[in-house]
Amino acid sequence: MSEKATETAAAVGLETVALTRSFGGVRAVDEATVTFRDGRINALIGPNGSGKTTFFNCVTGMIKPNSGSVLFRGKEITGRAPHRIARGGIGRSFQLCRIFPRMTVLENLLVAVRTDGLRQLLAPSRDARAIERARGLLVRVGLDHLENAEAGAISYGQQKLLELAGVLMSDPDTIMLDEPAGGVNPSLIGRIGALVRELNAEGKTFLIVEHNMEMVMSLSDHVVVFDRGRPIAEGPPSVVREDPRVLEAYLGV
Amino acid sequence: MPNASDTEERTVEGTAGRSAGGFTPPGWVRNATLVVGAALVLLFPELVPNAYVLSAGVIVACYACTATAWSFMGGFTGYVSLGHAAFFGLGAYGTGLLIRDLSLQPFLAWLLAGLIVLVVTVPVGIAALRVRGASFVIVSISFVLILLLVFQAWEDFTGGANGLNVPRPFADLYRPDHHRIFYYLFVALLAVMLLTWWVIDRSRFGAGLKAVREDEDKAEALGVPTRDYKLAAYLISATFTALAGGLYALWFGDLDPIFQFSILLGAYMVLMALLGGARNLFGPLVGAVVVGTALEYFKLEFGDTQLHLVTTAALLGIVVLFMPDGIIPAAGALLRRLGPRQASIREVTAEELLARNERRAAAGGAGAPEGASRDAPDGASGGAGEPDSESEGGR
Ligand SMILES: Nc1ncnc2c1ncn2[C@@H]1O[C@H](COP(=O)(O)OP(=O)(O)OP(=O)(O)O)[C@@H](O)[C@H]1O
Ligand SMILES: [Mg+2]
Fold first, then answer.
1. CATH number of the domain that B192 lies in?
2. Could you tell me the maximum CA-CA distance found in chain A, to the nearest angstrom?
């Protein structure tokens, strides 16, 4: 797929400016300045330990950056509580798939129903509208037959789909996926890819961290390459693939 | 849309759709148990042979209140507080001091003390809930220890080790009638708690709390304001504990910091709730009846030896090791095992899941990009990227 829009046409969605986060002496994210545009399937790639997950965690508020800022559609969101960032429209999955193992598949989705005010808080969790929406999403990811299964008892691949459905349930317009293809079998990778494409066509923006190059190359409109905590190259997948700096970073020449 | 599930997954555990929540007895068994249980509880004062047993019943009812109150925090969110006696003591002393110093009507003093504890718990909760897991346990213990020292040292105000005498609300009643009234007051308080529990359990708030128990960071990432939820649960839990403490003060009439702000009392709450099943509506109540009765029996048989301490410790160990979900789920599992086999339902253990994930990861690793070696899905390096999660709270 080629660039969906020229650099200037698509609105800026997620942005970081000189974002930095160190662990002890390691600068996991090192003055990273990156821009992701709305409406695209963006990919973030880079060798192991190049700071992709740390970047995700800083953007979503799970860890505080040491310096620099995160902006979403021009508004500064640095250091906000994760739930506020999530409610602001940024959903995410985790590299090590995270679900609520002792809840049912359906209950997992009901957690993501948004609640404001005391009356909604005390309203039954299993209300008809929420359940209907959740079932619709389960059909989409192909887990509707497991609605009442305990989430911890379904397969890892199914858990990944469940996590994705949970993120969708919180109704984000930007979806960040940390290695959606990690540890799942090839046919499932195909299904996840198709789903991403479908959702993107419906207007969802994606930012995907992924090591599976086949998936990255076939899926994304725009690729950013990280090395040692900062972007070293970016552009359409076909260009990035040939970039000597990228090959060097990956091969460690 | 692509097909629901690829073939490999279907054959491996497409049928693993075992219903969560475990064993559920038929409706009539449940209802009958409830009716009989409620009747026994209500008729208890009429069935007992003497005032001594009746007073033991009051103590057990008080334990049931504290264990249930504890579970609003420990059960829903999984945050284990060993220092809940702090709220019990504050409720008890608050009630006593308001009566002594402001000459308030006893039950007005009781409600006001509950309100005061609610307010005091806001800053305490904000501070305590900054940490998770074992650290939270330590913070909760230090809070009760601080209060113990303060209430012992500040003799002019609290009476210190000499104790605080709380005038009885019904001065002209005989002892058995006094016990009977307080038995029903504790039962009424318990009923209010159980109703509150039931409302929360099925609410969105409750769903959020249970999500905190399972994976706090994940809940946050889905938009659940976990800090506010935890604080709300903590406040509810503390206030109910304080109300139980206040009733105790009015009933017993004599307070001593050593007994009111005691870690042992907090440990009893944990033991009772966990033994009965802190995630179950009636679990803490069942646990309190079992443990409370045992404690009273030990006291009667062996007097003031340390035997009950040893037994408590042993019980706590057994429960934590072998029945982490409590008696009710354990009994349910036993019934399920004894009952008809459901061949199609197969549980996948954590080890199996792990082994399978590793197999998948190994298979996936083959397709990794140019030389970028990948081991387990999250393995050694990547996992460090996620903030430490201990939302299981010491369990
Ligand atoms: N919580 C942490 N404590 C200490 N060091 C950390 C922590 N999280 C990440 N690091 C370090 O920061 C660097 C970047 O790690 P990060 O997980 O962000 O990389 P990544 O690009 O996601 O790697 P992978 O592709 O393996 O998932 C690594 O050197 C890692 O060891
Ligand atoms: Mg990572």
1. 1.10.3470
2. 60
